[in-house]
Design brief:
rod-shaped, 75 residues, 3 helices
Length: 75
């Protein structure tokens, strides 16, 4: 009940502000995930573990795609 009332009361400016903040939050999460992927890759390189390096690279690729998708979304 509260959600429908909130949605009706939210004007276009408020919705755009919330959507923009959500996009920035998801972009920040994507950036931090890329940092975690780099850490996994470096750890795998130090241990000569090809699987960890591959997992780290996969994490970096996925987080980069998320980051780009969130920043290039339509307004």
């Amino acid at each position: 009940m509260k959600f429908s009332r909130w949605r009706e009361g939210a004007g276009p400016e408020r919705r755009k502000l919330i959507w923009t903040k959500l996009r920035v939050l998801l972009a920040a999460i994507g950036t931090l995930t890329a940092v975690a992927g780099i850490a996994v890759s470096v750890n795998g390189l130090l241990e000569f573990n090809k699987v960890k390096v591959a997992v780290g690279v996969a994490i970096i690729v996925v987080s980069t795609v998320l980051y780009i998708a969130m920043l290039s979304g339509s307004d």
